[in-house]
Each structure stands twice: as C-alpha cells, then as structure tokens.
Amino acid sequence: MFDKLPVSSKTEKILTKSLDEQITVEEANHLMNIHGSDLYHLLATADYVRHELVGDNVTFINNCNINFTNICTVRCGFCAFGKDADDPDAYVLSDEEILAKAEGAVADGAREFTLMGGVHPDADIEYYEHLLTLLKDNYPKVSIHGFSPTMVRDACLASGISVAEGFERLKDAGLDTLPGTAAEILTDRSREIICPEKVSVVEWVDIVKTSHEVGIPGSSTIMYGHVETFEERVEHIDVIRNLQEETHGFTEFIPMTFMHEYSPIFLEGQSNLGATGTQDLKLYAVSRLMLRDLIPNLQVSWVKMGFRFAQVVLTAGANDLGGTLGGDELSEASGAPDGVNASIETLSRMVEDLGRNPIERNSIYSEFYPID
C-alpha cells in the first residue's frame, strides 16, 4: 500500500539516490520543504538507511549532568538557565556538592559525568583542571563529557595560553569528550541575533577542530526552531559534515529542538514558537541522509521532545536516545516536557515497543552493554 502513495518525481529521484550516497545541500533544501505523501516517503527512506547502516539497536548511556555553576557572562537569547553573579539564585557548587552528585550517580550505575555550567567570568584552565581532577581522582572509571568551545576559549584567554595547550591540559586532567554545545546554529546571521557574545562560526569550527586534533572527540549538535531559516538548518548540517570529513572526531549528531516558553528571546517577541513536529521529523530524516555513516549515530533528545515524540523520531532515521541525564538543569529551566531524569527501564520500554533492541553504551560508542 505504501508503494502506491504518490510521490513527486524530484523527491523520488533524491530519495533513490540517498539509498547509496549522501544528498547535496540543494537536495536537502528540497526535502526540508516537502509536504503530503512525499513526507512519508522521506521518513521511510531515512528509517531504511538507518537500518542498513547501523541496524536495529537503539543505544543510550547512563549518565549524570553536573552543572557546577549557573553564573554566566554570555547571556544567550535562548537560555533561561544563566544568571548574573549578584542574582539571588546564582550558585557555584563546592567540591563537596560536586562529589555528592557524582556519588549518587555512580551508585545508580552512571558511566559518564556531563560537566557543564555557565561561562563564569573567573573560570580559567586551572579551575577546569581542578574539576576534572576532583572527579577522576574519585571515580577514575567514569568518563567525563565536559565544557563547551566557548568555555574553553574563555578559560584559555584567562590563563594566557593557546586553545591547543588548553585542550592538552584538559585531556591530561581527565577530559574524555567535548559536548557539541555552543554550536547552536552555525550561521553568523542567526548567531548575531541569538548568541552574539559566543564564538563565531569560524571560531567554533577552529576550536572543535583543535580538540579533535588533540585527541578529544565529541558530540555535534544543532539547536533549531528559533530565528533560523530552513536553509540555515541545512547549512549547519553541511558545516558539521565538512568538519567531520576532515577530522572524523564527532561521535554523534544531536538535533535539539528549541524550547521557547521561558527563553528571553521568546519573551521579547523575537522568535518563532519553536519547530513543529513535522519540521522535527524532516530535520532528523534529512540529517540521516546528509550524514549517513559519516556520523552514524543520530541522537534523539527526549528531554527536549518528551518521551512519546522522541519514540516517534526514532522512526525517522535516529538510532540513539542520549542519556538518562540525571538532572539537566539547563533544559529544566527551559521547560523540559517530561522532566530531566529517565530510568534505563523507561528508555528500554520506548525502544522495545518499536521492536528494536535497547543497548547501553559508553561515551564514544566503543563499548556496549545489552539490557537484561
């Protein structure tokens, strides 16, 4: 019956090509704008390509977010988490508080600490080294996924060293992988509106390229559904694709739909109402067809979409559910629909209901632990 659904000749031609090779920017832009039964063909094709490239396992990691401060000098228009230093709700976690969070996570089986926070004005490389050493000395077997390109750049400036030296020192102190944060949308037009104080596109690419050259792999992300155009979404994916072709340092690609409700840019009336569900599905499917096995792991952010729709998106080319998270305060401040904590059992149920296999993984997708 599905084969009898009509499809436009251009869409059919692009999707047929995508079975064997990456689609171009022009072809991706076409798919971002399709409607009707063309959409069903796109989703089915992306899901087929996913199956052919990575099989029917859906992975996730048992992890814990440790947001060591919410004080931030880079006040992005989309963020409801950051605070000024004199805000009554501002905080910096003590060593004892950080270790308490880590201890609870490890007791629950965490394999990764996601070490993040605001861009604190006094944070230098020495401070970040201290945080890494604190956790590694106490939990040497737990990987650390930490900081952002903006945080690393500013810390290196504060310490008077190069970004390359900064990454070398962070790696020696225990940093295992770099989050894809600070990418947001990799076009300077949109960045000037939503995050003008963050690194530029060129700076972001240079910093992430340096981390890969030093031997710190990491995530790649896109945050969409605010002020960017469909074409800019595709442009962003192409920037990621080109960098991956050069360094092969990305472990995953994570589309993150913009949660607008409490964001400053929405409250000021400058943004859209976020992406629609159809736009979410298109972005995942197009990402799979643009990246294919260049970045084989396409992650669904259940904390951004909620459990039910995240499960649906797993049928649009995705193969990973991120992590259990254990307290993503950044997303919580933006209004995460289903909270910011998930159990292994919850994620497994979502996967098994699709007839696929839930698999726990490590940070770099090199070790896998089947769910009993």
3D architecture notes:
With 372 residues, the protein is an alpha/beta fold. 46% of the residues lie in helices and 12% in strands. The protein is built from 16 helices and nine strands. The strands form three sheets. It has a four-stranded mixed β-sheet with strand order 7-1-8-9. A three-stranded parallel β-sheet has the order 2-3-4, covered by helices on one side. Helix 5 runs parallel beside helix 7 (163-173). The protein is globular and about 60 Å long.
Based on the model shown, name its key terms.
372 residues, four-stranded mixed beta sheet, 16 helices, 12% strand
Q: End-to-end distance, in Å?
A: 37 Å
Gyration radius (Cα, Å) is 20 Å
Which structural class should the secondary elements be placed in?
alpha/beta
The level of helicity is 40-55%
Outline the low-pLDDT stretches. 331-338
Strand content: 5-15%
Note the overall shape.
globular
